Amino acid sequence: MHWEKVTLVGAGLLGGSLGLALRQRRLARRVAAYVRRAASAGECRELGVADEVGLDLHAAVAGSDLVVLCTPLAEIPPLATALRPALKPGALVTDVGSAKAAVVRDLEAPLAQAGAHFVGSHPLAGLEKSGVRAARADLFQDAMCVVTPTARSHPGAVRRLKEFWQSVGGKPLEMAAELHDALVARSSHLPHFLAAALAHSVLDPARHPAQALVCASGFRDMTRLASGSVEMWRDIARANADHLREALDGFIAELRRLRQILDAPGDDALQAFLETAKERRDGWCAAGASSPSEELPTPSRHAASRVD
Predict the structure, then answer these.
(1) Is residue 77 a contact partner of residue 108, using CB atoms and an 8 Å limit?
(2) Cα distance between the two ends of the chain
(3) What is the CA 159 to chain-centroid distance, rounded?
(4) Which residues have a Cβ under 8 Å from the Cβ of 154 and sit 6 or more positions away?
(5) Domain region containing 215
(6) Cβ(84)–Cβ(106) below 8 Å
(7) Mean pLDDT, contiguous 10-residue spans, the chain (308 residues)
(8) Are residues 22 and 126 in the same domain?
(9) N or C end of the chain: smaller count of CB under 10 Å?
(10) Are residues 129 and 235 in the same domain?
């Protein structure tokens, strides 16, 4: 797949990694990046994440075939509104947000009115580090990239978006936005907040001074996610609050069950608890990621104006 011009609105970890992947694989004739600060623009130029880097949103978006919104979730709707006048007719617009239902609801109709096609995306790729200096050209290699079309999505736009994620190394997976949000609340959002809660609890200054000294690799691995972007995870929690609450309630119930097992006499229940967890995780690891061609039920789609 080749694009004439791709614009990255925001160039942190994900946006910067996309720019590096696009340029390294020669997938676009021009890659433009919009950033908010001159210092960020300098970093992007130094690292080579785009051919053009600037602070003018309309100039960055003008003439682009593909616009990827790579900012924290709370910034996506106002930026999408601001860039509408600069959109090329028939342009494909997507995002990389970790919660999809609200973004799809807020952006699909207004961008359609501007003559563009919006289809939501969520590449399941990332690090505990943030910022463009953490960007990697191979960040999306073998990563599941969820695409969330609706009944109004143009089939050609959906196809091109899935091909885009595949071209940077990802494995496209299509599903409805609400289903996505419910699933990632448990598998992505919950782990981050559990890591944060564990860091809060164990590293509380009120603990014995030796507590931090006996925190080794297990604690480091379990709390790695707590070092992620505070701004990003704050926005994710607010955007997907209902599903995150349900995930927390389910996990709290599991912890209570474990507490009951520990309180009960004998080791049989505890042995079964640990064995089941090990079997499920080992089986998941052995199976690997889902097939990139796998699709989950989505609303039926009808054709709009062509983007092919």
Answers:
(1) no
(2) 12
(3) 19
(4) 117, 301, 303, 304, 305, 306, 307
(5) 180-287
(6) no
(7) 92 95 97 94 94 96 98 95 97 97 97 98 84 92 96 97 97 97 97 97 97 96 92 93 97 97 95 96 81 44 35
(8) yes
(9) C
(10) no
